[in-house]
Amino acid sequence: MSNINRFYAFKRFERFWHWTQAALILLMIFTGFEIHGTYRVLGFEKAIDLHTTAAWALMVLWLFVIFWHITTGEWKHYKPTTKNFIAMIYYYGFGIFSGSAHPFHASEKEKHNPLQRLTYLMLGVGLMPAIWLTGLLVLFYNIWPEFGLEGLSFGWVAAIHTLLAYILISFMTIHIYLITTGPTMTSQLRAMITGWEEVEIEDEENKDRT
Amino acid sequence: MFNCQDLRAARQIAIRFLIFISLAVLTPWTGAVAANDGPTILLGPMPDLSQPKVIRSTADHSKFEILKKKFRKSRDITKACLSCHNVSAKQIHKTKHWNWEFTHTKTGQKLGARNIINTFFGGTASNEASCSHCHIGSGWKGNKFDYKREENVDCLICHDTTGKYAFKKFHTARGNCGVCHEEIPESPGKKKHKTDLNEVALNVGPTSRRTCGSCHFLGGGGINVKHGDLDSSLTRPSYDLDVHMDADGLNFTCTSCHSTDQHAVRGSRYENEINDIGGRTIPGKAAARRSSCASCHGERPMKNDKLNDHTDKVACQTCHIPSIARGGHATKMRWDWSTSGKLDANGKPFLKKDKKGNVIYSTQKGDSVWAENVVPDYIWSDRTAKYTLLGDKIDPSKTVAINTFMGSADKSLSRISPVKKSRGKQPYDAGNNRLVAVNLFALHRFAKDKSAYWRNLDWPRAIAKGMKAAGKEFSGKVGFVETEMLWPVTHMVAPADKALGCDECHSKNGRLENINGIYIPSRDTKPVLEWLGLGMFLISLFGVMIHTMMRILTRNRRNNGGVKP
Q: Which residues, in sequence order, are CB contacts of A129 under 8 Å at separation 6+?
């Protein structure tokens, strides 16, 4: 028999953040690749308008998000750790196919496994700020000289912005896939909707999966 | 014996015969004199003289005694003008309009109508008699002209408000129909068009689109042949055709933008400023300078800031003149002189027209290609024109650029600008690899010298005469070379809602496909980063797919393992 540990993992604001951010990012990916010239659906002007508006909206959201993480101490969930790190890689690489036990058990104290911690941290302090920075540079390229940036190349900045977008959609592909690897296909999705995460605490005798 | 009556009768017959003969001889070239509405056809609607005139100046010229004299020559009117406007001729004498010569301050090239060769009639050398119709002087004696005489300034060609004087000036004995008419009218009318110089003299006034247009609308031999964005539809344009010149709206004249100072007109295509800022007349500032859009609109005139961000690289005209030749008159896109000279079965010159009536072949001019609603070409331009001049070596295996505009992406004073690209196939000196001056027009209809190309369709002879007049050497060998000439597009400014949308340029194969040195989102990528990003995405996609497949394949094993005790 397995023990189910049910705990409130994702607070209301956190879920609001996650889903708003998801929607804005999807919109920006759709409009962004249109601006990039990958396809023509909305028209360049409409795409630019939506892309820019969504970008500002996400940045405003992030101001609240940063405030929230600092004041609630939630930022601690993104402190990288080496504990179970290799085990997690091994689990996704091999264990998952043979029905091995999940080496990590989420709890209120540790919502994210070590791989998630590192990935989300890199997303939060690396990829996202880099996309915004390059995006803002593209948006404000006319005033580069006022910031002493006239040496930058518009084309390269725009192309790096696009490269970062490719990295983001690569992340999203893996992210959306990995949420199906929970106790059931949809349990992790449900957790992000309701906030309640269910974690199996398996005993040694019974490895049956629910 | 003849009696008196017989003698009188014989004399009458002789006189009638002479009149008949002279009419028969004169009619072909007085052709355009045909209808009284001649000027209407080429220069758009005549001014409405029935309306009471509003005089904005402090003098009503129709009240001046000196202008009520009987005038026979326009030069006599000029003398009357000069009696009050006593420095105007001296001012005119310094202008490009007068000297047809301009030394470029940046390139040092000697330009101006006197020096350049174009893809249309070629050059002026040896053709002065005909070309001088469009000169603002009067009193040309064949190819000779006294540039120093004040009364040789033709005030009326610019300052007539009746719309009648231009007609007179162009239809003189030296008149060559082909200078303005694509198709030379075959049956002349019976009445010779008479222009009453006194009416003209009493109606002098400011210049108008029509007066400027009497030369500039017809450049290259007919309506809109040359420029594409300048034709007689601008005599009374609609708002859609040009928002500034809109006759029922702002009603700008040419000089509203091409501001003048001491009779010198600003805004030449040879040398101009990209952003002639500060053009609005502000007390304490120097005389008005209004030769670019930015002169009045500034550099960030639009409500949308992202659009304003474009003005450092894109000229206003690029988006706001979506197409040219929009007024119902086609413009000539290609002029192939090499096919000229063919005769019909009867050994006579002939014409061929397309469905819309554009002359696509004429014996005198060769093949022509016309187009309406033309999408311009786009180039980097800092408004500095450079020409291939008569003495310059050319490479006949390539298309010769008759002119180019300097400028590039990395120059702060360059803008992506629209141009009409006129193509030509024109004669050149195949021995020396140089462009040539052609003696196209005869001095007048009865000239003894028969060298002119339009007289005998003999290229070497016509070129020899042209080159002699230009003071250049000619090998005698004639070839035809592909040429290309760029005409800056700046008129026919469309209403804002008809300006180009983003997709016109921000797309692959868009209007700016050939513009180098700049990264245009939607058009450009950096392949290295593009493949890197796409590769990363594809690898993650494949990884996920393989992982899914393996989970499906190992599902039974896991389940079986699960039921084990």
A: none
Cβ atoms of B131 and B142 within 8 Å: the answer is no
pLDDT digits (tens, 9 = 90+) for A110-146: 888 888 889 999 999 999 999 999 999 999 999 999 9
Q: Quote the DSSP letter at residue A117.
A: H
Distance, in Å, from the CA atom of B42 to the CA atom of B222, rounded to the nearest integer, reads 8
Q: Please tell me the distance from the alpha carbon of residue B98 to that of residue B155, in angstroms, as a whole number.
A: 11
Contacts of A39 (CB under 8 A, 6+ apart): A33
A99 to chain B, any CB pair closer than 8 A? The answer is yes
Share of residues in chain A with pLDDT > 70 (%): 94
Prediction pTM value: 0.87
Q: Report the alpha-carbon distance of residue A167 to residue A134 in Å, rounded.
A: 14
**Interface list for B 50-69 with A (CB within 8 A):** none
φ, ψ of residue A111 to 5 degrees: the values are: -75, -30
Who among B507, B540, B554 is closest to A170 (CB)?
B540
The answer to whether A158 contacts chain B (CB < 8 Å) is yes
pLDDT band for A81, please (50, 70, 90 cuts).
confident
Length of chain A: 210
Task: List, in order, residues 6 or more apart from B298 with CB less than 8 Å away.
Answer: B277
pLDDT tens digits, A37-76: 999 999 999 999 999 999 999 999 999 999 999 999 989 8
CB pairs under 8 A between A and B: 107
Q: CB of B411 within 8 Å of any CB in chain A?
A: no
Could you report the per-residue pLDDT of B285-307, keeping only the tens digit for each? 655 567 788 888 888 999 999 99
Cα-to-chain-centroid distance, residue B450: 30
For A24, the token pair is: 């804005």
